[in-house]
Design brief:
Length: 296
Amino acid sequence: MDIKHLEYFTTIVENNFNLSQSAKILLISQPGLTKFIKEFEDKEDVELFVRSKGRLVDLTPIGKEFYQNALLVLEQYDKLMQDLRINKETIKGTIKVGIPPVILTVLFKKAIPQFILENPNIQLEIVEAGAYELQKMLLLQEIDIAFLIDPITTNNIQSKTVVEDQAVVVFNTQHPFAESKEPLTYNDLANERIILLNSTFMIHHQIKKNFQVASITPHIFFESGAWDLLASMCESLDLVTILPAPIVPHYSENTLLSRPITPHFSWTVKICRLENVYHNHLVEFVEDFFIHFFNS
């Protein structure tokens, strides 16, 4: 149970166990709130609520104790966030953040402007480079933070997940793959002309490894460091590419389509910094901002 769920629980109690009214306040559906209660009680093997004719009417003794503790936790959380906002006004300086070009425009077009607007005293320097280059720069302490695609291949790097998605096969609407939405296998791709992001990108090596595991030699037609070029080539030519799923919505369904890959091709973005190295409050603050942005 996280802070959000504690707020669900206390809101139900404070609204006299009226799930309909509580759901409206929390801006969620009533079935969703009911499901949350059941799943939590089942998972923890406890009964927090007294029920009568299928309705919540009161708290059990355990529920009453949990409610008091939940109020204390929420009070501490509010104080923590208040202190953070106060400290934010005093934090200033310059921080260098490395971001691979393949995700910069896709994931950060809202995150970076919001950061700048909320933190005018912090100078954010964006360094664009591929995953391997960013890992090297992080180790040499040429940048403070890097957003890297999992797996992280270098030791001594601390990482936290900010985005979990998948890689997909991308093609135009005239391609035979457009006739179905079922996942594609690597065997399906064996005879296709494939265009890929080049070897400076982590996904390039993941794709090559996946084909090798499937005992298939792919027909690599072209490689580039620009995902928008690959997508544009697929729009007009009988080619396919493999790209992170968040890229696809940037193109109209009238020109490009996608299908998942089986076995599942995970695509995970992590925020990284060096382990066992002193980091000032500025680095910690920036890291916390982006983690909160992507997880909210």
